[in-house]
Design goal:
Largest sheet: 3 strands, antiparallel
Shape: elongated
Number of helices: 8
Strand content: 5-15%
Distance between the termini: 23 Å
Helix content: 55-70%
Structural class: mainly alpha
Number of strands: 3
Oligomer: single chain
């Protein structure tokens, strides 16, 4: 099937049918379902590349941006374990993100006011300023990205995306 770097219109429905026949699955698996999933995977890969290129302009990665935005949404302070849970990543990944953001002066670690043994991550004034400076360009580009869709189409897309997201567990189920 197509990799993320190939055109989103590849593979074709015919190619999906051919592969299913090759593996003896044509009577068990709907080729259109496979095609939708494969194109979604390709779109996700391309979107990931595009977001990394966008955030690199600001000296960030997508993960670092998401962590900053999550902190801001939480009032500027969260524990590393809360950040990991909110971002859907491991504690080790969050530690690496925090390290990089701390070196940039965008966050600091400090002891928790509620539990002196715990550490919290705090958004610095510089981190909040960077988010404010990025916002007009980021949100404008996001709007442009989906600008070819009507309001009704966006609503339908959100519904469909939600249903697909619910089915993602199929990829990791035992």
């Amino acid at each position: 099937m197509a990799s993320g770097s190939e055109a989103l219109d590849a593979p074709t429905l015919g190619q999906a049918r051919t592969q299913l026949r090759r593996y003896g699955l044509e009577s068990e698996v709907d080729p259109q379902a496979v095609l939708v999933a494969v194109r979604l995977l390709a779109a996700g890969a391309r979107l990931g590349q595009a977001t990394e290129a966008h955030f690199a302009r600001f000296g960030l990665s997508t993960g670092r941006y998401r962590l900053l935005a999550d902190l801001e949404d939480a009032g500027g302070e969260k524990s590393p374990s809360q950040l990991a849970a909110g971002l859907g990543v491991t504690r080790a990944t969050v530690s690496g993100l925090i390290d990089g953001l701390e070196q940039q002066g965008l966050v600091v670690r400090r002891g928790s006011a509620e539990d002196g043994r715990a550490v919290v991550v705090v958004l610095t004034a510089r981190g909040a300023q960077q988010l404010r400076e990025m916002a007009p360009e980021l949100f404008g580009r996001l709007q442009s990205m989906v600008g070819g869709l009507t309001r009704d189409e966006r609503a339908t897309f959100l519904d469909l995306l939600g249903r697909i997201t619910q089915g993602m567990g199929a990829l990791t189920a035992d």
